[in-house]
Amino acid sequence: MSLVKRNNLIFPSLMNDIFNPDWFGGMENRNGNLPAVNIIENDNDFVLELSAPGFKKDNFNIELDNDVLTISSEVKTESEAKQEKFTRREFSYTSFKRAFTLPETVDGGKINATYENGILKVVVPKKEEALPKPKRLIDIT
């Protein structure tokens, strides 16, 4: 299991990219808050668990293009309060984009995803030929 997280607090983004490259998959983020991702390899599949509390399942976009799985989200919120001579307007914008290069051993046509309790869970099944073979006894003649 691997946890991939990046926070650009000390160096600017360019310096961080030069001296600390992300070997687990590309990332793009405009506001510095990337959700943490657990990557779990089981016998039959890979499971990506992305921590994104406060989102709705409609906020996510998951794409597969040429063995690259991309998970992204964009959320905009606005609120406005008017009182007598005072108007207050607040808004926020949150977005992230994570990309993962999948191995040739996965079946991209059977990928599925669920979102529950702040965790986006993406299951990437392995191809039949990549699954472990059961132990077989060989008779001696």
Automatic annotation (TrEMBL):
Database matches in PROSITE patterns: SHSP
One Pfam family named in its UniProt record: HSP20
Domain of life the protein comes from: Bacteria
Listed CDD domains: ACD_sHsps-like
SUPFAM superfamilies xrefs: HSP20-like chaperones
Gene3D superfamilies in the cross-refs: 2.60.40.790
Domain SHSP: start-end pairs: 28-141
Family designation: Belongs to the small heat shock protein (HSP20) family.
Protein name per its UniProtKB record: Hsp20/alpha crystallin family protein
Organism lineage: Bacteria, Pseudomonadati, Bacteroidota, Flavobacteriia, Flavobacteriales
